């Protein structure tokens, strides 16, 4: 493997990937098959918001490796089930070594489930989040040009916080927007650029 002039790594299969997706097989598979592909639906978007929140301050590899355990611990991220979690559930989750045991993040996942249920009166979480899709996507030519926030991620974070969500800062929400296909930050010329079908 070798790093190219744009900052991506030319992998042994001949494809260029960002450094974070170049070596770990799990991250490579996630990058090649999931990251940046459209995600819609209440439960799916809620799960992504939770996992992005848990990732804050940690590597995405850590979260991805723990994703099956997160899904088991949080009832498949079924919104109404998590919304009904109690203090006893918080303690159960804090005792689970297979997930990230951060009390504030665990409570945020429960808080966000309740806020997600409340958003049904406004058309639901998925449509709400996607309403902040920008008119144009970034077109970075190098890794250094990939943004970490946008006016839309700032606005989305603010709007979600007003509706009771937690751990939804502008950087976290931009990462969400990248992950679910709302923006395409694959480098121009990358084999993954435009793979979502949303941006050409």
Automatic annotation (TrEMBL):
Superkingdom in the source lineage: Bacteria
Keywords: Metal-binding, Zinc
TM annotation in the entry: none
Gene Ontology molecular function: DNA-3-methyladenine glycosylase activity; metal ion binding
InterPro entries: Adenine_glyco, DNA-3mA_glycosylase, DNA_glycosylase
Protein residues bound to Zn(2+): 186
One BP annotation, GO: base-excision repair
Electron transport is among the record's keywords: no
SUPFAM superfamilies: DNA-glycosylase (SSF48150)
Name this protein carries in UniProt: DNA-3-methyladenine glycosylase I
Species lineage: Bacteria, Bacillati, Actinomycetota, Actinomycetes, Micrococcales
